[in-house]
Amino acid sequence: MTGANHPLTGNFHVPAPENEPVHEYRPGSAEALSLQAEIKRIGDLTQSIPLSIGGKVFETATTQPVVSPHDHQRVLGRLSLADESHVRAAIEASLDARHDWSRTPWYERVSIFLRAAELMTGKYRDEVNAATMLNQSKTYHQSEIDGVCELADLIRFNAHYAEEIYTRQPKSTQGEQNYLDQRGLEGFVLAVSPFNFTNIAGNLPAMAAMMGNTVVWKPSEKSAVSTDVVRRIFEEAGVPPGVINCVHGDGKMVTDIALADPNLAGLSFVGSTQVFRQLWKKVADHIDTYKGYPRVVGETGGKNAIIAHPSADMQALLTGMTRGAFEFQGQKCSAASRAYIPRSIWTKLKGRLAEQIDSLVVGDVADHPTFLGAVIDEVAHDRLAAAIERANSLDDHTLIAGGTTSKETGYFVRPTVFETTDPTSFALSTEFFGPLLTVYVYDDKDWTQTLKLADRTSQYGLTASVYAGDRKAVAEALDILRDASGYLAINDKPAGMSIGKQQFAGARASGTNDKIGSPLALQRWVSGRFVKENLAPDTDYRYPYMGA
Ligand code: NAD
């Protein structure tokens, strides 16, 4: 459908966005029983996960199994892998769809995605959750807040921000009309998403498409089963053929082709710092051949610190460390993975922390008491096992809790805490992306130096937490940590945000800091054209100062 054919006239408003209520899934409740039935249904299937190009799905001869991390013999899906011809076809399909989609009225584009939000919170709520639980090993709560609530919230709030962007128009005066035409980018957008959040996977293509772009979407192969539910929801909601083209496959091959195409208009990436840097370099390599200057947006790794002042509330700190470092096995980009604790608090906290962490249940996420599932795959398991082994081998590192791993039935890593006396330890600066927290204990008098130490210890700048009762200490932390993170929590864990209230992204090596959950993120996917219409054109070239 093109704008020219659209029958509605008027200035329309999207519904005022509200956060999707989070279901609790208490044991034995109707919602828990319904979700458990869906987990059983999806868990018993081996789904075929196709590519989707130009509105058609393709199953390819080359496939890859997608397994459940906490039960790796369970094959949830067979993922069709794209070859070069599929990637080229996806680019072509997105370029073909661009003309009509970019001229479809914004409120119609937005209403298609709002419909998708209704489907994911209604008809498909159980399926999104079951797929996310099985495929990414998320607990009931972690899955509900990710794949259902946060994705629906992102769509609903982004619809509202889109309206804001389109409504913001220049001044017109008598005799002159001014228009800001917020065009989608010329070309196609390449969206490359990570495994860890179903909502990020869905939001990357949705956000660009909402603003009038057409997209080649390369999701992570590790979370392909849950991503595929989102793809099907978008299609059922009415996203037209060619607007979002989903190609699975080797990331390097897909991005090599897409980033070399002269029509690349933007790269929307979430994932590791190392891969983002490779992609940015490829964009730079092709700069002479692009038709424009592609927008490059990337949100990447972190080494997020919890920094406690001697005036901190110990119980709140204990809860923040436990949830902040170990929910979803520490595989949130925003998870805490280092902590700076004053000695006066540590002497009392250490035993309680060890006891609490050792009591956390690790296992099958369908079991209600489970707090941590498995890490995503064998590579992640081995990376964490190696880091634990290395820390254990160092005299200045002491194991406080956890420290064991197993990959027999699933890729399990016990939540692990080390204490180190080495402020430059690898464990305080390297992102391991798992349930590994390293604590550095400082003398109470060294608060200011500790803030400076935390600021310079890692290359990242994603999230941080400060726990303090003393407001002067908070003010000092806000000042010294000014460039250390894009998201700072005071007396709260560094992970976990609510769309519409908090905005998320980081700087330094953590990304381009285009705040997700804000109009800034959407603004990157439009390119303005200014139109001036003179209603009373001048008819004499001479100015008054020139005299008669
Ligand atoms: P990843 O970088 O391994 O993969 C991300 C995407 O890039 C996937 O689709 C993957 O298939 C693709 N890819 C992998 N190697 C590639 C290559 N050589 N060339 C091209 N594409 C390639 O990241 P991941 O393991 O899926 O996710 C975890 C990482 O993402 C962590 O570093 C985490 O901090 C980060 N992350 C950041 C944010 C944020 O908002 N800052 C959010 C989520 C995750």
UniProtKB/TrEMBL annotation:
EC class name: oxidoreductase
Active site residues per record: 299
Substrates-to-products reaction catalysed: L-glutamate 5-semialdehyde + NAD(+) + H2O = L-glutamate + NADH + 2 H(+)
Residue span(s) of domain Aldehyde dehydrogenase: 62-525
Sorted UniProt keywords: NAD, Oxidoreductase, Proline metabolism
EC number in record: 1.2.1.88
Region (Disordered): 1-24
Keyword Ubl conjugation: no
GO molecular-function terms, A-Z: L-glutamate gamma-semialdehyde dehydrogenase activity
Pathway connected to this protein: Amino-acid degradation; L-proline degradation into L-glutamate; L-glutamate from L-proline: step 2/2
Family: Belongs to the aldehyde dehydrogenase family.
Protein name: L-glutamate gamma-semialdehyde dehydrogenase
